[in-house]
Task: structure prediction
Amino acid sequence: MTTEFTIRFLPHNKEISVAEGDTLIRAAIEAGVHVNASCGGEGVCGKCRVIVEEGSLEGGISEKLSAEDQEQGYRLACQSLIKSDLVVRIPVESEVDASVLNMQATPRCTARIQEMDLEELKEKGLFVPPVEKKYLELPEPNAQDNLADVTRLVSYLKANYHEHRLDVDLPVIRKIPDVLRQDDFKITATLARPVHEISKTRIINVKPGDTTNRNFAIAMDIGTTTIYGQVIDLISGRVLSQHGEFNGQISYGEDVISRIVFAEKPGGLAKLQEVVIKTINKVIEKIVKRAKIDPDEISTITLAGNTTMTQLLLKVNPSYIRRSPYVPASTLYPPIKAVDLGMALGDHVTALVYPAISSYVGGDIVAGVMGSGMYRTDALTLFMDIGTNAEIVIGNKDWLACAAASAGPAFEGGGVKFGMRATKGAIEDFSLDPLTFEPMNMTIDNVRPKGICGSGLITIVATLFEMGVIDNQGKFNPDLETTRIRQDDGVYEYVLAWKDETQIDRDVVLTEIDIENLIRAKGAMYSGTMTLLSEVGMSVQDIEKIILAGGFGSYVDLEKAMTIGLLPETDPDKVVFVGNGSLMGAKMSSLTNRIRKDVVEVTKKMTNFELSETPSYMDNYVAALFLPHTDLNNFPKLKARLESRKTMLQ
Amino acid sequence: MTTEFTIRFLPHNKEISVAEGDTLIRAAIEAGVHVNASCGGEGVCGKCRVIVEEGSLEGGISEKLSAEDQEQGYRLACQSLIKSDLVVRIPVESEVDASVLNMQATPRCTARIQEMDLEELKEKGLFVPPVEKKYLELPEPNAQDNLADVTRLVSYLKANYHEHRLDVDLPVIRKIPDVLRQDDFKITATLARPVHEISKTRIINVKPGDTTNRNFAIAMDIGTTTIYGQVIDLISGRVLSQHGEFNGQISYGEDVISRIVFAEKPGGLAKLQEVVIKTINKVIEKIVKRAKIDPDEISTITLAGNTTMTQLLLKVNPSYIRRSPYVPASTLYPPIKAVDLGMALGDHVTALVYPAISSYVGGDIVAGVMGSGMYRTDALTLFMDIGTNAEIVIGNKDWLACAAASAGPAFEGGGVKFGMRATKGAIEDFSLDPLTFEPMNMTIDNVRPKGICGSGLITIVATLFEMGVIDNQGKFNPDLETTRIRQDDGVYEYVLAWKDETQIDRDVVLTEIDIENLIRAKGAMYSGTMTLLSEVGMSVQDIEKIILAGGFGSYVDLEKAMTIGLLPETDPDKVVFVGNGSLMGAKMSSLTNRIRKDVVEVTKKMTNFELSETPSYMDNYVAALFLPHTDLNNFPKLKARLESRKTMLQ
Result:
């Protein structure tokens, strides 16, 4: 249990609860309180000076503060660890400063994280692992009873467990003669339950002795960039370990299109399949080791990925995915022996691959819909997976519609001059002094900035827009009195951090071109949502719940995402974040056959809209190429803030 | 159509119909007429002199005949090709000769060969190939209709052919994108029909264009010694080609026990599997070439073999087959991808392996039971597969019981001094001059003798017994006046051919030890039959039909086999020969799913008796270690012949 303390910021008079040991600057940004800070929180710029009026801290003293400053209670916010309730004053130059500061930026607001509730799953009958182990003490054969080994096993299960419909896999037939005789015909049999009642239970493995307490599954997300895997304990339902590795295919192309192009070369498809399996095996090795289990104790694996990743994994030519009219080879895939795909797992393991909907709404999205429980709710839900290829699903338990929008790589740091993945040194949070336009940069791991990650980009652009630094077309106001706005080669840019405050010995800037790219990305996303809504005769107001999935969604500031018009403006409480929806769905399928059965129905139910073939899409897209949108009336809260700010500054 | 001629032999006055071009000596042996002949029919001993009294021949003239002889009508029977009806006199020394000859040996009598009747199969609904091809012209995709390729195919089959339950194999998913686009979405789909109505039809292959008229299957018998394969046209039901190769495993042991011993060595099992697949692939290559088809046009393969051969084929440790209480790994085997076993066939081909009953009643016997139709008849039927391991099945459509008797290798030429397989130079037929005890040896391909094959051995021993040369314990009568009976190293033997009449520059003899071995072999077989009959409360008189299967059964002289007590004495018309029952059953399964379904029921229905665990077996066995048996009353016809002969010679 973590102890929480209350921090009150003056002159704003904003209070926030934070955990013991957090830095004061993180508390400020959570509260929406601006403190100048250029160095990302590393403590070298010395700008984040605050005065501690009540309570005690650890640290915060630096050579950047004179002895006099220190005596007056000045501390560096980024170096101060919270150890008690505090009252902290942000130094301002004037009363105007204080009042402007006081009205500005919304507090940081991220989505509630929706996690799987095991107890709820059990209650709803959704915890029925597809693979079950039984310990059996079989009678030993003798001259009067010399049934075949398999017949002995099957008859015993029939007589003692009413298992009347059993199939036996060849690997079991291969193992059974020796396994039976290793421990006096005491064995543990692994039974794979059928997804459909009409089908048979399969005996997939036999081991000597009692191993019923060791039954594990692997869930895996085959991402274009990263492959994540989890080991799941099928008895407790808990995740025992997790690990991600960059998809080895990256060397053959960053995005799905370049992978497809590579796959079209002679030997390319086989190469990409080989390479993804290599990464998968690396992940398996790591998670199995971390979970302290033997790879042979894995009973099943479920994988989800986008349509291209899935076809490459299964060595299915993806060529027609990238060519109009964008036809995938299949949506459903049969269960496949993991060893046949080259996976370093036992020969008893069947790999289940999530079905896809279309070329650009893949198994990762279906997995997200299944894992998030969206397909079981009454509430009209908007599911968004934000990434290079942004996928949108709208619906509930009765109907589902989906579409994919090509957002481009801006959300993942691509097409942005200093864009980078959300790793150490990426500016992930930002605020702006409304009078001096000095920034507050917070980086991942509190080191000097190297670049900007996706969630940082959204916050920066939203803040610049709300503070009037850029207009609703993303163009800089050249009249502001700050050296941070400048022109380079005819392109306006904002200097986030000066050369000597960065790790890269160059100024870290945000250019108008970067902003244009972001606007196009969010425009694709938003207009996709609007098009889908109008196709099904709904509007933003009908949405009862928003589920965000995807790599960057957990840290994104919801208010900021609404400010730029990435998300429709709504009550942030309606928004939940499920993280890696693909992985979550894969995990759910490992835990219950019910999902494996339902997913086929969901796949049939989900209507795919090709945005490029939907006439209203282009209009919606053009209208969305503004901050937040041509029609500000759909963003009433933002509209009110912008008007209040205008009034304030007049 | 062959022309038939009638040959009348004098002084016996026996008539027989033979085909144009047959040799006179073959006609004689068929008729049960003795002519001295030592050289197997090669024409070098010059002993088979006959006088042609009416009709014309081709050949028959030899330097062994003087000009005078020739003028008198003498010909060498083995060199005379029949071209018309004939009257032929066998020269005898006296009236006694003539009368004795006249009463002796029964005419050659082999079993009627039962072949598959396609028309009957069709009438009975037993010609429903498990694999079907459909030519389809699919609509091409466009922007408004961009269904996945597989969905397009499945939807089309659903809409146009009411195929509502379809599964699609991964290889089809891999092929479909390119195949569809090769010939404007005109394709031929291969559908594998389920054995059980409850299961789904699987789409196993797709090809561009219309290939519906090319649909083939392979049936294969995996024998311990020889692997036979057939290509079957699934449209006409006809066998297009057939070929046998020695099982490559022979290098690792002649019989199943030595193979099992080898499989127990490190790497042994894998080696034997690899080697049998190599032979299988050799057979496939040959039969596919002979049938003038492409290996990729094969849609399915069915294999049958004994339990050990089956386990080795599937790489299942056979160790416990040879150890008490003789437990096989499994009786049923799941369908397996042919490529997974290493077979040189398309990845769409599923290999179906015939189920076994027990360690020594294997899939070859089950295949025989299925192929012969025994399991569908009302008549009480005795099925015997005669070989080293002799298997016996008794029953009809309501019940089936089986047992295996270890006969030893005598029937296949093993444990017999000059025993050999039924190949060129093996004495396969024999008769004896009842006064001079001179032999008539007929060899395969009419060349000088090299040894004795199984059917020859039976005929020789039966003849020696009936002629009083050996007694009912197989012991030679040392008082007979002939140099052909002699002792060598204390063991009596009969000289079949003198050194200079053979190919091997040694006398070819039959020893008392050889006869003992044959008696043990036939004793095991007969007592197995008797034991099984008594266990089910039946007797020999209840048997309405006997089905002989196995490599040597086609040529065996039924009356001779009854004379030695290998078969119960019965009307030879009740006996049919099905040849390679294993191959026949495999072929039947290729032609119809009905058999594939029935076989599981048959397997369940068939009760296995372990003879070693059946108390009456040993008594039956000891009683059967005589010619034909301790109790001659079960062989009334033979008894009558023996008595008549006794009277004649008195």
Notes: Chain B has a mean pLDDT of 92. Chain B touches chain A through 47 residues (CB under 8 Å). Chain B has four domains: 1-103, 130-208, 218-360, 371-407+524-649.
